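User: structure tokens for this one?
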Amino acid sequence: MKLQKKDFIEIEFTAKTKEGNIFDSNIKEDIEKINPEIKAKPLIFCLGEDMFLKGVEDELIGKEIGKHKIELSPEKAFGKRDAKLVQMVPRKVFIEHKINPIQGAMLNFDGKMGKVLSISGGRVLVDFNHPISGREVIYDIEVKRKITDINEKIKAFNDFIFKKDFKFEIKDTQNGTSKKVIYEADEKFKAFLEMFKDKFKEIFDMELEVKVPAPLGVPQKPELLGKKKEIKKE
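Assistant:
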């Protein structure tokens, strides 16, 4: 059966430059070449929803379950190098953030990753291009299976997006014509989870609702306690 957009799939993959340098993987023997401290684990995501590199997702749609070798040009991978993204940053910016710039270091600048190229007096030359930009890349991918169980899909979504295993249950909506997913989460997560209502509807075609459990020692609402026992009159 061919893979389609919005299919949840489990993959094993290794990504490398055309020269053979591995830069990403979830296979033990390959990921250890990048960083021995990173643990390999299965990757499950929703196809065609920008949860993986778009160029790879586009190539997988229409393919069968199994092994695939996907070669991408810079335009379909991490983009061409842009000279405008190599910028001179005043050293005082680093001092204000209590950062000691070191040549070759990758640093986070308000959500943008940059590599320190050189340091000269009070100025630091930083490259904000993606480290693999301008290169042709190869993804060796094995699609292990297609996930059909809705609970496993939602758990995979939670792990991918939230990096957290929230409790949830699936129920019928009030009119009984559709389904909704009810998350149980602390108050501090409620607004964050609700930001994904539209995405959740788009992927699962279900409403998302977030309930905050009552603090310990605080009684639940009467409707949650069930019917009261009737007292028989003598």
